Amino acid sequence: MVSYAIECHNLGPGNQHGKPPLSDDALLSSANFTLSLLPARLAHRIQRLRNLPFIVVANPHINKIYNNYLHSLSILEPFYQKRISTMEEEEKFTEVMADLVQTHTNTIPTLAQGFLECRKYIDATEITNFLDQHLRARIGTRLIAEQHLALHMASTADARALDSDPYNIGVIDSSLQPARIIRSCEAFVGDICEFKYGVRPKIDMNGSIDATFAHVPVHLEYVLTELIKNAFRATVESGNESHPVEVTLAAAPDVPMSKLDALKQLALADETTLDFTKDGLAEYCTLSEGVHGPINSAPPTITIRIRDRGGGIPPDVLPNIWSYSFTTFNADEAAGTNSVNDGLNAITNGGNPSSIAGLGYGLPLGRAYAEYFGGSIAVQSMHGWGTDVYLSLQGIGKVV
């Protein structure tokens, strides 16, 4: 998690390239920064796929993903030898970025189907470990590519002639209001529930409804959609649709902790393998001053609690909810459905997949999105009553 945050610190609200529309020099700097990161990331994904058993990589779906990464690495090859120095070169590079993003659009459902078909040839734990690392890395790769694409589009001649949104910096909304995303997801999931079940659960929202912070809207929308899908489905299938799902937002007060102290504390955590107490930490924090805000400030944090009366999660199911194998590799009947892109492909609370249960990627992938920028998802279940899900979100940077 920490390595991703440091690698992408240039994507923060301060953005070292400036706010769009960018000058030609700033756009060239963005292109070269993007180029400096992507080849190595793509090569690492190729190597990880090669390390899988041959019979798994030979699966048509997984082999397709492998070839997609080879394709993306090959189209970057013309840019390896020298810096991007002209706007014509930047234009060609941007076209390559658009191709890369489009090529990998369906990576998740394709991998899901491939591993579903290979579940007899590879251990479920190994699959979960591979997917956890692979999909987290994919988030970063797409974010880097999409950020440059968005900055390029916002810096075109047509965009310069328009009044651009002062809060949008590439794919980042520096004044994102989670409450609005929640209402949008409620409407979307509610429509699907009404179509599927004939009823539409409601959300009661309270707390810091007006709170804003800097984040990537599409990431937050995905996570909230998955969590609301779970809550709505559990509520309807338990017959408690008359009880609204309660959503509480809490904006944490400003934390008077420096980046240096925060990273030192993080370096001592058991789950962190990187040692940030070594030389270079202070230099990083100094360099990031002005990028993420003053060195003596921390990005704002917003916590969202989603509470449902859906009967809770059975104790024997609870330990499995973070495993991609929970529904993907143990649900034989899922192999005969085309539910990868189904509207309600959330994990079934009772552990019994249905036609809309999907392939079980919703919750673990949602956690990957949350953790990418330092957030988290925690689940507290009261079996026989309901479930509380705590989504903690850390802003990408502090807007000053």
UniProtKB/TrEMBL annotation:
Location of the Histidine kinase domain: 217-397
Subcellular locations according to the entry: Mitochondrion matrix
Signal peptide: none
InterPro entries with a match to the protein in the record: AK/P_DHK_N_sf, BCDHK/PDK_N, BCKD/PDK, HATPase_C_sf, HATPase_dom, His_kinase_dom, Sig_transdc_His_kin-like_C
Main location: mitochondrion
Keyword presence, rRNA processing: no
Keywords, alphabetical: ATP-binding, Kinase, Mitochondrion, Nucleotide-binding, Phosphoprotein, Transferase, Transit peptide
Domain of life from the UniProt record: Eukaryota
The enzyme's E.C. designation: 2.7.11.-
Cited PANTHER family: [3-METHYL-2-OXOBUTANOATE DEHYDROGENASE [LIPOAMIDE]] KINASE, MITOCHONDRIAL, PYRUVATE DEHYDROGENASE KINASE
Entry similarity comment: Belongs to the PDK/BCKDK protein kinase family.
Protein name: Protein-serine/threonine kinase
